[in-house]
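Changelog-adjacent note: as of this version, every example in the card shows the full chain rather than a window. The one below runs 395 residues end to end.
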Amino acid sequence: MDSIHKRIEDFNRRYGELKAEGLYFYLQPLEAIDGAWVACNGRRMLNFASYSYLGLLGHPWIDRAAREAIERYGTGTHGVRILAGSLPLHTELEQTIARFKKSDDAIVYSSGYATNLTTVSTLVGRNDVVICDKLNHASIVDGCLLSGAQFVRFCHNDMADLERRLQQAGPDKGKLVVVDAVFSMDGDIIDLPQVSRLCRAHNALLMVDEAHSLGILGATGHGIEEHFGLDGVIDIKMGTLSKTIPSVGGYVAGNQALITYLKHVARAFVFSAALPPAQAAAAKASFEVIEEEPNRVRTLRRNVELFLGGLKARGFDTLHSQTPIVPIICGADERAFRMTALCQELGIFVLPVVSPAVPANLARLRTCVTAAHSESDILHALDVFERAGKRVGII
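Full-length structure tokens:
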């Protein structure tokens, strides 16, 4: 058997084993989504797997904007924007993002994954160095590999190691440092003050992925620059339109020269169809709702404190999370599967993350708390996690 077929067979063998044991939880059908609740396999469950951090999914203002866009423009676009034309909605969305991120302009792509993949691979090439945190998202890693640049990683959030990597790159190479703002599996925050200082000192461009910090960090949810009081230190501000923003797509905000370059050179923009009208309108309206309803950010912050504090008080290991992404460390993959089964039996929709997505023996439940959760929802979930954690021997 050749190596390709062996990999497929090995994976499907493990898949079959998990299914047979009742421990396969991925791709579950959601029949309905209602705030902090979902209907799954005919059961109503409290959702702790959602990226809708501010609870904007189903917001009437956003839904109305999407419906109006369909009535005016239909359900799809007729080609790529650079050749077939841009709708006013696309320009308005990019202007809205630019204002929100305090940048000259923005570019919108069809997915968050494509945003990182194409932006990194467009900006650097074989004579450059791209330097990444070891826990960066897979889309960043794939963009680095595709670029052909020298690809260097530094130890997670280790500023001394980042400085060494920058020094090793030398003064004559083009240098791009790429980091997540909030790390999607651990929930911790990059040390932006030190990263930006080191980038300036070594003449490196700084790109920050704010997929999990938009609407979360900062007093008004404007992101990591607001969180640290460092407006303007990020050169390339990347984010998604499918988490806090209940739509689909991704964006980069930055100076005019950068955005003009990307709109004419980035392959995932030049060769991909535009966002459908409803999705562009929904994304634009979502940024407006965040501005108009700042209480959602405050509610989320309160819920994070209640949930994270409650888990720690019950003896769970949550690593260094400071955000709505809260890992509940289980250790071995099997424990994570067993704990997921117990939680779902008790009405909590939560999913396990196991190796190789995370290091061996750091399997976890990847829980997400949102502004849609009530205090009673969180307290109930904490009781369920405690019961399940004790039964599988995590606490």
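Structural remarks: The chain has 15 helices and 14 strands.
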